[in-house]
Amino acid sequence: MRHFPVLVFLLAVPLSAAESHYPLWDNHESVADYAKRVNLPPTRTLALGDNVKMELVLIPAGKFMMGTPEPTPVDEEAFLKKIIIGKALLASSVGALLVMLIAVSILSVRTRQRPKFSLLRLLMITIAAGGCVLSGLHWQQAANDLRAAQLEYSAAEARFRVANNNEKPAHPVTFSVPFYMGTYDVTQAQYQAVNGTNPSQFNGKDNPVENVSWDDAQAFCEKLTERTKQTVRLPSEVEWEYSCRAGTTTAYNSGDTESDLGRVAWYNGNSKNTTHPVGQKEANAFGLYDMHGNVWQWCQDSICDMSHVRGGSWINLSISCRSATRSLRDQNYRGYFIGFRVVVPAISEPWPATGGARIALSLPKGSTRNSVQGQRPAAIPAWGNAPGKCPVTHLGLKARPIAVKTAVMFSANFNGSIRIDSGASIFRNVNL
Predict the structure, then answer these.
(1) What is the rounded distance in angstroms from the CA atom of residue 279 to the CA atom of residue 289?
(2) How many CB atoms lie within 10 A of CB 174?
(3) In the chain, N or C: fewer CB atoms in 10 Å?
């Protein structure tokens, strides 16, 4: 495996009593049920002006595997043992049942009477018949589990085969604090209400705004923050991918096939070369629409005046719309296939932000760590598609740089875990 250079910023901020850990989402309950369990509203609405509103949905605290994991080979021997045990039990039960039935038949012939079944015989026959049924089910279930594991391995192998290097190695991430994310991409009507302009090439008030740079998205977030008196920002990459997957591990949050993608996304296979009004496709398990396709979405993370966009767009092939796909762009780049959506913390935080996420790292054995207190390193090795070496210019909003208290750099084959104890704040994560 390659060794990927990783830069992680840990922002030392105290956690208030309100920021205590929330229960993690169990990957099954609805957002409404989770919201009730943690006593938070399942949705929030922001008034943007001109009778235009923005809806956000609660993203539960939880954990997921970020990136594209290497498939784990199927332990066929363990499944085959279960199958053999099931067959053996079935053979034994059938044999016992046949012996009892034959014995009753022989006795009936010898006495020239109808077969008689005592309570004991009936009980024994019932037990034998039940053994046949249970052992047959055990055998069938083991065989089904083996086939399912083989299919999942094949699917995981296919996902890993097409994955880009910047999606590897996958690593576990835990969010201990929920947050709110825009139910839809920011629309042209919403952008117009806040920024007073509409730069989009494809006009439609309910279509996603596009032709916006990272700086444009930051300006939108800053104006909306000042208007609503609460932090509004772009999602980090970890927040975006966690929200997109919504408990899934497949290529798309709807499955692994292109037909699965077509249910949730506008991409080059069905878009007819244009964007479409938001919310026309199926939502994911969190209630988010258009996380795949329609327009790429800017993320908050910043390095070398570049940031990643996620999700793919109307112009892209299906492979570029996967949950794990990352594409690096200059922050001043504008394209008619790039938009954004926003995040609002579940726990109110001051503006401008003075802190960030508290991230606990569990590093694999052999990792090296060099702490640089009170300063940013002058240069770091490039990652993703960033060429060469470049200075770290900012961590959070470009217009409002956030003081970095501690910078930690380590170079290793990272397969440790990350815990984010404040999903409400801006941070530089370790997505690879």
Answers:
(1) 5
(2) 18
(3) N
Whether 82 contacts 138, CB under 8 Å:
yes
User: Which helix (H) or strand (E) segment is 396 a member of?
Assistant: none
Contact indicator for 227, 298 with CB cutoff of 8 Å: no
DSSP 31: H
Q: What does the pLDDT profile of the chain (432 residues) look like in tens digits?
A: 343 333 333 333 333 334 457 899 999 999 999 999 999 999 999 999 889 999 999 999 999 999 998 888 877 777 777 777 766 766 677 667 667 667 667 766 777 667 666 666 667 767 777 777 777 776 677 777 778 777 788 888 888 888 899 998 999 999 989 999 999 999 999 999 999 999 999 999 999 999 999 999 999 999 999 999 999 999 999 999 999 999 999 999 999 999 999 999 999 999 999 999 999 999 999 999 999 999 999 999 888 889 999 999 999 999 999 999 999 999 999 999 999 999 999 986 544 443 333 334 343 444 333 332 222 233 322 223 333 344 333 323 233 322 222 222 222 233 344 544 443 333 333 332
Instruction: Output the six-digit token pair for 14.
Output: 């105290």
- Give the other-Cβ count within 10 Å of 409's Cβ: 17
The answer to whether the pTM exceeds 0.90 is: no
Q: Which residues contact 419 (CB under 8 A, 6 or more apart)?
A: 173, 174, 176, 359, 360, 362
